[in-house]
């Protein structure tokens, strides 16, 4: 029986309309090289110029599941569907590292299953096997990372950890200045907080790019445990959002007051980075945190200069 005819016969049997939408969904399942999810089916339809809603996809799948023409399975926490018409027995290789799922049809397995089911007088409908392990790509990456010297590994891990801590601090700084600009009704204070938020955003973007480039060049870092003896809670200690907004920012916070708040936060950051650098033995990580401390000091000096200028102009 031809696959398309199976759908027509099924719909006729259930006294359902043989709509073009149902035919398209069935066609996608038959032609798909993998086992798409509901959203995957919808996206494949859209890529071919067919706008069919998720509700229609769900209803059609329900009919096909009840008839035994398709099968659903759970992979990586999502439900996937596959047509069972003319499907050989096959394996799924699922990588424990990247979670990639590769289907591997096997006529030898099909022949073996047929022999066993015949021997036991069992009418087999469909079978599927999942083998978990490490794919060839991840194996190569693992071998490559294993070849990285311990000194280089330690240095790059320290850089990653330092960037993660600094990113957390910069994100909270940006959020604080943004919220402060919304809280104050004073126009000069609001503009100053908005400018400070923009500066934090630029700094944050640069750090995010550095972090992205570091991890892309050294993918093994994604699996490397942290080496810096520091908790990311330090970011909340430097930028206690609720406390600062409640105690230091009000409806009438002026430009001078906004600058004063910013200078205090820069002082805190400078002191933290400098003190932490002094606790580190690794010269590379010590240098990184001293550079962060220097940047915070330069930002503080620029804010102080601006504060004095505004004060003199009053």
Distance between the termini: 90 Å
- Residues in helices, as a percent range: 55-70%
Secondary-structure element pattern, one letter each? HHHHEEEEHEHHHHHHH
User: How much β-strand is present in the residues?
Assistant: 5-15%
Number of beta-strand segments: 5
Question: Average pLDDT across residues?
Answer: 80
CATH homologous superfamily grouping of the largest domain: Ferritin, core subunit, four-helix bundle
The major pleated sheet works out as: 3 strands, mixed
- CATH topology annotation of the largest domain: Ferritin
Number of domain units: 3
Q: What characteristic shape results from the CA principal axes?
A: elongated
DSSP helix count? Answer: 12
CATH class of the largest domain equals: Mainly Alpha
Radius of gyration: 30 Å
* Strand line-up of the largest beta sheet: 4-3-5
The low-confidence parts are none
The CATH architecture of the largest domain: Up-down Bundle
Which structural class best describes the helix and strand composition? mainly alpha
Could you characterize what this model shows?
- The chain is mainly alpha-helical and 314 residues long.
- It folds into three domains: 87 residues, Orthogonal Bundle (Arc Repressor Mutant, subunit A), CATH 1.10.10.10; 60 residues, Ferric-uptake regulator, C-terminal dimerisarion domain (Dna Ligase, domain 1); 164 residues, Ferritin, core subunit, four-helix bundle (Ferritin), CATH 1.20.1260.10.
- It is built from twelve helices and five strands.
- A three-stranded mixed β-sheet has the order 4-3-5.
- The relative contact order is 0.07.
């Amino acid at each position: 029986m031809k696959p398309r005819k199976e759908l027509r016969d099924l719909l006729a049997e259930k006294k359902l309309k043989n709509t073009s939408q149902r035919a398209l969904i069935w066609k996608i399942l038959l032609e798909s090289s993998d086992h798409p999810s509901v959203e995957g089916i919808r996206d494949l339809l859209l890529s071919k110029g067919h706008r069919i809603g998720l509700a229609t996809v769900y209803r059609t799948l329900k009919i096909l599941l009840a008839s035994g023409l398709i099968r659903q399975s759970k992979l990586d926490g999502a439900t996937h569907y596959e047509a069972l018409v003319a499907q050989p027995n096959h394996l799924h290789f699922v990588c424990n590292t990247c979670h990639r799922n590769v289907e591997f049809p096997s006529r030898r397995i099909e022949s073996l299953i047929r022999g066993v089911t015949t021997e036991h007088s069992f009418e087999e409908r469909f079978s599927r096997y999942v083998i978990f392990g490490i794919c060839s790509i991840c194996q190569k990456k693992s071998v490559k990372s294993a070849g990285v010297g311990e000194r280089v590994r330690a240095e790059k891990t320290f850089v990653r950890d330092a960037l993660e801590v600094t990113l957390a601090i910069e994100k909270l700084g940006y959020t604080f200045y943004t919220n402060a600009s919304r809280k104050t009704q004073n126009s000069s204070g609001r503009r100053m907080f908005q400018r400070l938020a923009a500066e934090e955003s630029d700094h944050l973007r640069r750090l995010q790019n550095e972090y992205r480039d570091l991890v892309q060049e050294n993918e093994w870092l994604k699996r490397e445990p942290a080496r810096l003896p520091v908790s990311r809670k330090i970011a909340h200690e430097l930028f206690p959002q609720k406390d600062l907004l409640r105690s230091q920012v009000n409806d009438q916070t002026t430009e001078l007051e906004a600058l004063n708040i910013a200078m205090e936060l820069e002082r805190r950051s400078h002191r933290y980075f400098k003190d932490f650098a002094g606790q580190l033995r690794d010269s590379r990580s010590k240098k990184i945190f001293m550079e962060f401390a220097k940047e915070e000091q330069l930002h503080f000096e620029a804010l102080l200069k601006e504060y004095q200028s505004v004060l003199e102009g009053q």
